[in-house]
Design a protein that fits this description.
It is a single chain. The chain has 270 residues and is α/β, with parallel strands linked by helices. It has 2 domains: 204 residues, 2-enoyl-CoA Hydratase, Chain A, domain 1, CATH 3.90.226; 48 residues. 40% of the residues lie in helices and 16% in strands. It is built from 10 helices and 10 strands. A hairpin with a 2-residue loop joins β1 and β2. About 6% of the residues have low confidence. It comes from Bradyrhizobium rifense.
Length: 270
């Protein structure tokens, strides 16, 4: 597929998805939405990809929705950019909502936040599994200052990352949050200088790609996103079931063998 608003690259078993509208600070568009989702699903289906990095070109990660697109948005058809059916709120989320498909990707997704991360840009960063940011990145939910509500599941995801009180603060005030505060409240996992962000992000990604079992990652990621809908008993039963599968898998045998033989593992994801 030829992408219009992103760049896509695979190297060293790491797929990089780059929002590519640097002249507009990577402002989000329906075309970008289509491109990002296709690239994520492509990465998920590619056995040569172990880790996905989502980042932005230029001086921003994503400064929010493209205001020109918002001005022309039909309020009676907010789903026009995606062909997904209406979300059934009477059952547990199946991670196929408009932007909430990231948890269904069975590979770790790292948001490499190279600059301003606002509004819908913050939503996408939160749906990633980890967030590495420059030490001069500024974050904002933005919605309340545009007369909008907590969109696209951020009301579910944000409190689970930063806690209820911090989420309430960030959503109600829509204030600008500096990187040091973002690290303190858990909004990001790691801060780096702008010069070191790429180096540190890809060092972490390569460590996952080279030394961690893909099958274990896929199950652990699913477990963590399922837990909010489970009791302790259900989570334990699920873990016991998955452990039996893992013990019979080739990745477990390879993990033990590589440890005993003091060599790097050769995981297959089986």
């Amino acid at each position: 597929m030829a992408y219009e608003h992103i760049l896509y690259d695979v190297s060293d078993r790491i797929a990089t998805v780059t929002l590519n509208r640097p002249d507009r600070m990577n402002a989000w568009t329906p075309v970008m939405e289509r491109d990002v989702r296709h690239a994520m699903e492509t990465s998920n289906a590619d056995d040569n990809v172990r880790v996905i990095v989502l980042t932005g070109a230029g001086r921003a990660f994503c400064a929010g929705a493209d205001m020109d697109a918002l001005k022309g948005l039909d309020p009676n058809d907010v789903r026009r950019a995606s062909n997904l059916p209406p979300f059934d709120m009477n059952r547990r989320p199946d991670w196929q909502t408009r932007y909430g498909f990231y948890p269904s990707i069975g590979k770790p997704i790292i948001a490499m936040l190279n600059g301003a991360t606002a509004g819908i840009g913050l939503v996408h960063a939160l749906y990633c599994d980890l967030r590495f940011a420059t030490d001069n990145t500024v974050f904002t939910t933005a919605f309340a200052r545009r007369g909008l509500i907590a969109e696209h599941g951020i009301s579910w995801m944000l409190p689970r990352i930063v806690g209820h009180a911090n989420a309430m603060d960030l959503l109600l005030s829509a204030r600008r949050v500096p990187s040091e505060e973002a690290l303190r409240i858990g909004l990001v996992n790691r801060l780096c200088s702008p010069e070191k962000l790429r180096e540190e992000t890809y060092a972490y990604a390569r460590d996952l790609a080279d030394f961690v079992s893909p099958s274990a990652i896929a199950v652990i990621k699913r477990q963590l996103y399922e837990v909010p809908f489970q009791t302790l008993a259900e989570a334990t039963i699920d873990a016991n079931r998955e452990m039996m599968v893992a013990l019979n898998g080739s990745d477990f045998r390879e993990g033990v063998a590589s440890f005993m033989e003091k060599r790097p593992p050769r995981f297959t994801g089986k």
